[in-house]
Each structure stands twice: as C-alpha cells, then as structure tokens.
Amino acid sequence: MLPFLRRRRRELDAWLTQRGLTHTFCLASYLVQSGVRNHLAACAPGRVVDAGSGRGPHRAVLTEHGCDVLSLDVEDRGEGVDLIGDIQSMPDIASGSVDGVVCTQVLEHLPRPCEALSEFARVLRPRGWLVLSVPHLSAIHEAPHDYFRYTRYGLVSMLEAQGFEALRVEETGGLIAFLGHAASAVWLALGASVPGFRRLAWAANYLLLVRLLAPADRWLGLPSLYPCNYVVTARRATARPRPGETTG
Fold it and tell me: Does residue 150 lie in a domain region?
C-alpha cells in the first residue's frame, strides 16, 4: 500500500505544482506557506537565494515581492532550478552577494544543517535576512534523508551560533494540522487514482481538511505545546562569530 501511496503522491505533487496549488495539499503546508508569505512581507526585496527550492512553491511570492530569485536544489524537478548543488556548500554564490535567503522544510533533510546556516550567513550581506521553516511534528518522509526535528529553542541556538539574530519565531499549526496531514495524504492519493475524480477530490480536501479544519486547529490544536512547524525570520549580524565561538 505504501509504494502505491508514494507514487500517487508524486503524481499529485506534479499536478498541484502545475497549477500553483502545492500549498493546498494539507492544512500544515497551507499554514507554512501563509506563514512564509507573512514573514516575507516584512523583508526588504532584493537578490534572494531560494535554498532547497524543490518545485519552487515560493518563487511567485518572491517575485511579487520584488525579489530577484536564484533557486538552488540538489536536482531539477522540472521547475527551472538555476543552480544544482548542496546548500551545505554553495561555492557558486559569492560571499556577501545576496540580500535574503529563503529555506523552507529543508533543514530536517540535511545531515549537517549548521553548515547550511553557516553558508547562508556567508552569502548574505551584513544585516541580510533569512526566512526559514522547519518541522517539529512530522511523519518520517523522504527516507533515508530525514534526520532532525526542531524546537524554537534549538533553532534560536543554532542561528545565534552561526551569526544570526532571530527576530521572529512563530508556530504554524498544531496537533490537528499534524494529524490532518495524514488524512489529506490518504484521501488525495486514493482520490487521485480514480480517473476524472482528481479535481473533485482536491476540492473536497481543500474545503474540509484545510479551510474548515484551520479554526479547529487554531482553537484546539495547542500549537504552543504541539507545534506542527515553525517559521522564522532572522538577520545576519554585522560580524560573524569565529569558528567555535557562539553569540549570546
């Protein structure tokens, strides 16, 4: 059953990407996208690296915000990635050459996430910004490359150690959003397998398990205790810490 669901999930991801609807897959992804959009609205536009861009769900938002986007990923999934590479080492991007970095739902898949944060600090201009999202509650996914989950305290500590100041740390979704992800995954995988039923399955999922479930998660999901994901805005300090030195 699991290989069948994974195959249908990949097909559905491609279908949603073509229509700019990747954030509507489930409540958790909808809240992350909304949170990232809100955080980006407070950041100055400029040259921005979308680090671990995947299928490029944030390119339209960044472009609307007036950003010149440079997308980087380990592979091109057909969405026009500008650079192929590992965000733990980005030699093709010059030090101090960008105004912002966006990295969403990627750090958990890196064996050395602090190296990625160090690279973000390197390529950013002084006081450049970073918008980051990571999971706290999540099923195992993209195995075997699924290494970490995060708390707000761990995030702040990691950011400070790499020369960042955390300006805003917010939970997006709670326990209901976490459980809703599994419900959406099964429903959409099964619905997408029925010829002619995909659009109806998506619409029912979006109405019932995304939009109508959001208030229940906000009131009953206890996001401060059971955060599904975090969205963070951080700023690069004017001076980076020396190796082995932490800030604060």
Answer: yes
Q: Which of 191, 204, 148 is nearest to 9 (CA)?
A: 191
Domain of 51, in residue numbers: 2-236
pTM: 0.91
User: What are 89's strand-pairing partners?
Assistant: 86
**Is 222 contained in some domain?**
yes
Residue 18 CB neighbours (<10 A): 12
Helix residue spans in the chain (DSSP H): 2-18, 27-41, 59-64, 113-123, 152-161, 175-192, 198-205, 213-220
Order of strands, sheet of 98-104, starting from the edge strand that comes earlier in the sequence: 83-84, 68-73, 47-51, 98-104, 124-135, 229-236, 164-172
Integer Rg of the chain from CA: 18
Closest-CA residue to 246 (of 166, 160, 167, 164): 160
Could you give the number of structural domains in the chain?
1
Please indicate, yes or no, if residue 56 is contained in any of the structural domains.
yes
**For position 159, which CATH number holds?**
3.40.50.150
Per-residue pLDDT of the chain (248 residues; tens, 9 = 90+): 466 667 777 788 888 888 888 899 999 999 999 999 999 999 999 999 999 998 888 888 999 999 999 999 998 876 679 999 999 999 999 999 999 999 999 999 999 999 999 999 999 999 999 999 999 999 999 999 999 999 999 999 999 999 999 999 999 999 999 999 999 998 988 887 677 888 999 999 999 999 999 999 999 999 999 999 999 999 998 765 555 444 33
